[in-house]
Every structure is written in C-alpha cells, then in structure tokens.
TrEMBL record, chains A, B:
Assigned EC number: 6.3.2.31
Gene Ontology molecular function terms on file: coenzyme F420-0:L-glutamate ligase activity; GTP binding; metal ion binding
Annotated protein name in UniProt: Coenzyme F420-0:L-glutamate ligase
NCBIfam families listed in its UniProt record: F420_cofE (TIGR01916), PRK13294.1 (NF009810)
Domain Coenzyme F420:L-glutamate ligase-like: 10-214
Nucleotide-binding in keyword set: yes
Organism: Cellulomonas triticagri
Pfam name, any one: F420_ligase
Domain of life of the native organism: Bacteria
Keyword hit for Ligase: yes
Length: 259, 259
C-alpha cells in the first residue's frame, strides 16, 4: 500500500536558509501532531525544486527573465510564437528539456524569477544525509519539478534530483506472469513517485514537500546515480529538434548544397 | 492524504469476460479481507488497459505483430533502426503517440499480442456505471497504459481512458501563495493518478487494478470528457515528426523545388 501526504509548516524559504533544518523541523512538528507521519525507513521525501532554488538564492530579477532563460539554455529544441509571446523548449544545464529552461515566475516574490537548482542530485544527497543524521532512518530523497511533455496536454511532476532512490526499475530480462520475457520495460519509478507526490503537494496549496511511504523496495542504502540517469538526450534522442526547426534545417542544407 | 493499493483476486481475463463483474467480485472479496479497502465515494479505480483489451478480445497472433502495428498506425512520427529491430513511434487511433502503436506482447498468451482497447473512455464509463450500480458509491475510473516519452529514460503510466475524473486541473487564472497569477499551469491529474497507481500495480506483479483514495476533489458527478482531451496532436504539436524525418522531408522538398 502506498500513502503520501504533504508536509505542513515549512513556510517561506529565503536565500541562505538551511533547508534541511527547516524540513527537519517541519517533519518533527508534524510527527507530534500526527504520530503516524513520523519518518520511517523506506520513506521517500519529495522536495519541490522551488524551495531548493530559493534556499540556494537562485533568484534573478523578473525583468531579466528572457536573459535568464537564455543563460540557462544549452540547446534550443523548438520555439513557437503565439499571441502571448514566444514559447522556447530548450535543453538546460541539467539535461532537462523544458519550456523556458525551467525558469519559473510563480510562487516567488514579485519582480523575481527562480532558476532551477544548481545541482539537484547533490542537494538530494545533502538533504538525505542530514535527515538520516537527524532522525536515524533510511530514507530516499527526490527533488521534483513540473514539466510539459510532447503529445499530452498539461504538465506532470518529474524527478530532477535523487538520492537513495532506485530511479529506474529495469525489468528487462525478467519475466511476466506468463513466464515470457518482458520487452521494453523500464519503469521510471522516480518520475512516478514525483507524480504521486504532486497530488498531495500541488501548486496552489503551497506545500513544498511530501512524504511517499510504501516504496521501501526502491530506497537504497547508497545514494546511487541520482536523477541525471533519467535524462535521455544525445544520439538516442529522436526528438532533439522540433519538427519545424528540423524541416527548416533540412531545407537550408539542401539549398546550400545545391541539391 | 493519498493512499493507493493493488486489488488482488482478478485472475486471468479472457475474451468475452465481464470485466465489471470480475472487478466487482475482486473488490467485494478484498473488502471482506481488508475492511479498510471497501470502496468509498471519491475513490478512483485505475484499470490497466491490458485487461480491458483481453476482455474485449483485442488479441491477434504474434506472427502478425508488425501487421498489427501497421493497422493501428494513423501516422508515423519517427522510426529508428537498431540491432534488435525497428522502433516505430506512431500516432494510433486513440491519438496516442507510442512505440509500436501500443501493441503489447507481454502478459498475454504465447503466440499472441494485444492491441489497445477499442474505446477506453467508453470502457471507463461502462465500468463506472457498473460499479456505481453495484456498490452505490461515486467513484472515478481511469484506464491506464504505459508509455515512453521524449528526453526521459524509462516509461510511466498515463491515462488513456477516464470517466468521472477531472483529467486536467486547470490552474490558469488562479493565484499562487504570493497572490500572483500562476502561469502555464495545467496539471495532468489523470496521468499523475495513473502513475501513482502503477507504483502499486506493476508489470511483474500482475495486479491489473488499483484503487487510489484521496483524490475525491478530482472525482466528478458526470462522466466528463474523458482522457481523449489529454491528447495533444495536430497544429499545436511541435514534435509531430521526429527530427530525422522532418530534416529529410525538408531536404527533399528543397531539392524538389530546386531551391
């Protein structure tokens, strides 16, 4: 059985705050108010990237939003103009392909925007170490962010940082209930845990952290490779460039080649 | 608080089976064994598309797998050759963009493959009506399937059918905790519920149905538009064609035009 709940009491996070301490305090207070929530072995904490960014001071002036997106952009994947402006789907430093490079103007002070955390895997490891030291339990930590995806409306949460969590469940080579080998089957567990956590965190409620219990089989003694292994760009990426962009490039190359 | 659990006791599903009856029987038995699981208002049942396909008899011979994929293909998005064969990412009848059009060779009898259900939204509505009639509770029903996605390793579950569930949480126009308007924010609730359910269903365990409790605010009195509204293809789709395919088409068009 899976259970998940949002952790109340974290409050506004400011640059320089000790996020592990804030998180630990909130968990401790929650455990008093709701004893069933006391942190246990096998729990996974899912921390919204926003509060990590705020604690890290990854804040820039809103007037610089477009410049911030450009600075965070490693590679432009696709752009689309529309009445509201220009949508840029780009690959950022973390290998994530997202609109606006993940730069975020919600839930931050007027006049500011947030960049994604510097190194969410490292943050996950640090949070994990601090919580383990404080509470003496073996937990996993994910850092989550919201992203759109091709061919589907709406956004879902994904894991952009991870420590102590088996992020991919590689079922290749195992058999199904008929004894037949499973084909392409690599469940992105960390993304599914992040999605489940979003159902109890939520953008309008302001709860930035959730605990997901029942995934103890995905919690590992070591920190592991982190969420970076969930990135799939490079030669394996069939959608490295948007359709319109690739078409235009093909046209141009042919024209230049006098084809 | 969110809770989710797999429903045991459904067993092998055969063409012509009354899935609603099988599901109802399993839920009733589970309620006796685990009284806390008795179905309640606001619960969401997540049914793996596989068992819907089996009950519908959407089974073809394995030797015809490639022909089945072709038949289910409305539009080819991208293809990639590799040592194991050819991967085809295509749009199928349901508007879903998936590898192999969603044709599935796991968890089905040797020598057979499964096609996706005929109309998963209709199935969700029928299951919902049957469960409401049998148990007298207001539940939502999702039909789930597993899909890969660009730029991320591994697969997650998504909702391909829905009834009585608000599939998208449209937060545009609402404000965040700072009173600022939320920007692009449309949470794909149904996909996140499907992902959460997959954590307690799972490909190797064989449990084809899960109950997700705690999303009562997303369960609606009416059936609603279903999961079809989660499809985003057409003019709004910046990735309607894979990069290599679009490039080749641009080249060809330029060459044909004598550019």
């Amino acid at each position: 059985m899976l259970t998940a709940w949002g952790v109340p009491g974290i409050g506004e996070v400011r640059p320089g705050d000790d996020l592990a301490a804030l998180l630990g305090d909130a968990l401790a207070a929650d455990a008093l108010a709701r004893p069933a929530t006391v942190l246990a072995d096998g729990d996974v904490l899912v921390v919204t990237s926003k509060v990590v960014s705020k604690a890290e001071g990854r804040v820039v002036h809103a007037a610089d939003r477009e410049a911030a997106i450009t600075a965070e952009t490693v590679r432009v994947v696709a752009t689309r103009e529309h009445p509201g402006g220009v949508t840029r789907i780009v690959e950022n430093r973390l290998g994530l392909v997202m609109a606006a490079a993940g730069v975020d103007a919600s839930n931050t002070d007027e006049g500011t925007v947030l960049l994604l955390p510097e190194d969410p895997d490292a943050t996950a490891r640090a949070l994990r170490a601090a919580l383990t030291a404080r509470f003496g339990v073996r937990v996993g930590v994910l850092v989550s962010d919201t992203a759109g995806r091709p061919w589907r409306q709406g956004q879902t949460d994904i894991a952009i940082g991870a420590a102590g969590v088996r992020v991919l469940d590689d079922l290749r080579g195992t058999t199904d209930t008929h004894g037949r080998p499973l084909q392409v089957s690599m469940a992105a567990l960390a993304d599914e845990i992040a999605a489940a956590a979003e159902l109890v965190k939520g953008k309008a409620t302001g709860l930035p952290v959730a605990v997901v219990r029942g995934m103890g089989h995905a919690v590992t003694p070591e920190d592991g490779a982190g969420a970076r292994v969930l990135v799939r760009t490079g030669p394996d990426d069939m959608f490295a460039e948007g359709t319109a962009e690739a078409y235009a490039r093909g046209w141009k190359d042919a024209a230049d080649a006098g084809a």
